[in-house]
Amino acid sequence: MNIIAYPIGDSLYLNLTNRCTNACTFCVRTTTDSGMGYDLWIDHEPTVAEMVADIKAKGIENYKELVLCGYGEPTERYDDMLEVVRRIKEYCPVSVRLNTNGHANLIAGSDVTYKMEGLIDIVSISLNAPDARRYNEICQCQYGEEGFYAMLDFAAKAKAYVPEVVLSVVDVMDKADIDACRKIAEEIGVKFRVRELIK
Ligand code: SF4
What we know:
about 35% helix; binds iron/sulfur cluster; 7 helices; single chain; alpha/beta; TIM Barrel
């Protein structure tokens, strides 16, 4: 059975798609089929109505936040994702966090960051490396090194529409690289977070 909305701690997560513009070497999609304690492979992508219904059925009003994050890149379904959030925010005033690789504008072919205004409260963007060459080695992006620059541009543009923008790295990086990534976040003017690698 496909898992759509699934709880982790006091957050409810939403699994929108298995598609992604990256193929990160560390990704739970390529290293396991049970990341985060759930098998999030889906045989079809849920409709907006199915996602809204499942989020409500799981009692979203009892969670501290809705997190847009599954086996895949949520912004592969950007407009559907935002429509789900719009309907859920009409239902209850939950905080919404988008975990993303920052490729929404590349996928859409235009700047779509403005669409997040009033819907997304936190956007957490995976930085993963301090430069484009190493980003592409790790993330194996379908856009090549352009994926790195587009991700940084997305972070900079998102600041105008989202209250909290975070660039994040996983804790397996060495200290010099983490420091270099922190500097990038400072230069863009967004928060920086070192997160634990999900195994
Ligand atoms: S961007 Fe996220 S979902 Fe996509 S391959 Fe990398 S870790 Fe996996």
